């Protein structure tokens, strides 16, 4: 590589790193507890869990579960109902003043066997809620997400430029050598390069999937407006289906599960909400193995008749989004994968911190 090319790549590496490093440090620090968010939630009691009962205990109908939730908040409507992947004996029912998207929501947790309302800590409060908001959007909503996405693009530029510079640099040294007999700055430079190349693939995966995740709302909005438009043409001009005219939700659930054998409910979006249409109960189903459990399968059921309307094909960009979410947090391979993700996260913190140190010493 020519000296001019080296200077050019060095400039890209220096400035892309400097601009994004503080934000990447924040994301790595907040991402560490989020890797173990399920375990932390269970330990702290931040999430309501149903008590253990004998296998085969009969379940109440979904209609009855929603009636119970309405009894707790009769002035609200149900937006969503979901089931946790590892705790399928409870319905987590989200209720709002109207079906329209809003930040004013409460959650009622109903034991799907006994119908008991389980105690639920306040949503969006506490340590983990603060950590998640910092990690996802810096408390700034969609603009915050897009800003962090831009920082992620700079991180990818820093990684690629660092890789380009690593090859000529290592011609002078053995692979992975850390010159402990030299000055602190040289030792930190060697450690920075060693950990950087060791975490290269992980950092690329997490950086790229993080960027994709910041576009989630925009991609879903595009899918709803463009991809679903053709499916909803027969309903064009029809108003929201009134609650009194809707068929049994249990029947709708059975229709959806029959259309996708072997799958389970992830969550249900009801008519008029942001993840459905004014005319459908939209079921997002998941598979049973570690990967397909995070690849939601969409089934739309007519809210008035409980008949299957469509199983929309998943476009490539939504497939990329759904794959990026488990890859980003490493939560699809059990505790060993989470521990590996945590160790790589800590190593990346050292890479970022040492990069700042090296710039400061050279400045």
UniProtKB/TrEMBL annotation:
User: Quick check: keyword Membrane in the entry?
Assistant: yes
- Record key words, sorted: Membrane, Transmembrane, Transmembrane helix
Record InterPro entries: PepSY, PepSY-ass_TM
TM ranges are 12-36, 146-170, 191-216, 339-360
Task: Pinpoint the PepSY domain residues.
Answer: 60-118
Name of the protein in its database record: PepSY domain-containing protein
Whose protein is this, by species? Ramlibacter agri
């Amino acid at each position: 590589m020519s000296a001019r090319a080296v200077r050019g790549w060095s400039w890209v590496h220096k400035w892309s790193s400097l601009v994004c490093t503080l934000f990447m440090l924040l994301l790595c620090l907040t991402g560490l507890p989020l890797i173990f968010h399920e375990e932390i939630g269970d330990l702290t009691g931040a999430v309501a869990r149903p008590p253990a009962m004998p296998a085969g205990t009969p379940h109440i109908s979904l209609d009855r579960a929603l009636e119970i939730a309405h009894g707790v908040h009769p002035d609200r409507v149900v937006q969503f109902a979901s089931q946790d992947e590892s705790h399928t004996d409870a319905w987590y029912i989200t209720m709002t003043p109207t079906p329209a998207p809003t930040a004013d929501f409460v959650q009622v947790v109903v034991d799907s066997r006994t119908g008991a309302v389980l105690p639920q800590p306040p949503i969006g409060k506490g340590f983990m809620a603060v950590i998640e908001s910092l990690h996802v959007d810096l408390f700034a909503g969609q603009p915050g997400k897009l800003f962090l996405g831009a920082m992620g693009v700079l991180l990818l530029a820093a990684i690629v430029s660092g890789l380009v510079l690593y090859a000529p640099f290592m011609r002078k040294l053995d692979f992975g050598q850390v010159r402990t007999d030299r000055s602190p700055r040289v030792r930190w430079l060697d450690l920075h390069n060693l950990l950087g190349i060791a975490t290269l693939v992980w950092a690329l995966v997490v950086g790229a999937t993080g960027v994709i995740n910041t576009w989630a709302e925009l991609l879903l909005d595009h899918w709803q407006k463009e991809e679903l438009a053709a499916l909803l043409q027969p309903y064009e001009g029809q108003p929201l289906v009134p609650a009194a005219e809707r068929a049994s939700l249990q029947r709708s659930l059975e229709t959806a599960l029959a259309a996708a054998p072997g799958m389970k409910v992830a969550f249900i979006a009801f008519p008029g909400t942001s993840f459905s249409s004014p005319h459908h109960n939209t079921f997002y189903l998941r598979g049973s193995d570690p990967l397909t459990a995070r690849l939601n399968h969409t089934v739309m059921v007519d809210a008035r008749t409980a008949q299957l309307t469509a199983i929309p094909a998943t476009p490539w960009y939504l497939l990329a989004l759904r794959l990026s979410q488990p890859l980003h947090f490493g939560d699809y391979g059990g505790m060993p994968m989470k521990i590996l993700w945590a160790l790589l996260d800590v190593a990346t913190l050292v890479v970022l911190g040492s990069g700042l140190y090296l710039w400061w010493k050279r400045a």
